[in-house]
Amino acid sequence: MKKSTSLFLAAVVAVGMMSSTVSADDKKGQKTYLKTCKNCHGNGTKGAAMHTQDEWDDLFAKGGAVIIKKHAGTKAEPYFNGDAFKDQAQDLRDFLFMYGSDSGNVPSCG
Q1: For the chain, domain boundaries
Q2: Residue 99 near residue 106 (C-beta atoms within 8 A)
Q3: Are 53 and 103 in contact (CB under 8 A)?
Q4: Residue 21 has what pLDDT?
Q5: What's 37's DSSP letter?
Q6: CB atoms within 10 A of CB 44
Q7: pTM for the full model?
Q8: Percent of the chain scoring above 70 in pLDDT
Q9: Mean pLDDT over residues 62-88, rounded?
Q10: What does residue 17 show for φ and ψ, rounded to 5 degrees?
């Protein structure tokens, strides 16, 4: 009994650590969204709901090639073609995916 309890507690701790890591990425992505996307696409709730989770995956696939192309010729083009987007793309994708239109999730602020 002692061994199974210890194993259960270890699993709970491991899942808890993974959850906070995932949460950190989408929170970081939310900050990026508010800084770089909000002016054109509205608050995070509105922006993330523009696409489903699968659509967000497609937009950010292959280094974000599709989302970069969609922003060609806009005032956001320099951001999407720069190093900042390359550094922030995964966090931004995590935020948008987490709150996509079919996720059932709503961001807390922004």
Answers
A1: 26-98
A2: yes
A3: yes
A4: 45
A5: T
A6: 23
A7: 0.76
A8: 77
A9: 97
A10: -70, -40
Determine the pLDDT at residue 66: 97
How confident is the model at residue 19, as a pLDDT? 47
Place of tokens 């709150």: 99
Output the DSSP codes for 78-107.
HHHTSHHHHHHHHHHHHHHHHT-TTS----
Nearest to 54 by CA among 107, 93, 110, 23: 93
Query: Tokens 């599709």 — which residue?
Result: 66
Q: Which amino acid is at 100?
A: G
Output 22-27 pairs: Cβ under 8 A, ≥24 positions apart: 22/94, 25/90, 25/91, 25/94, 25/95, 26/91, 26/94, 26/95, 26/97, 26/98, 26/99, 27/95
Task: Give the pLDDT confidence of 14-49 residue by residue, as tens digits.
Answer: 555 554 444 458 999 999 999 999 999 999 999 999
Give dist(CA 76, CA 15) in Å, integer: 37
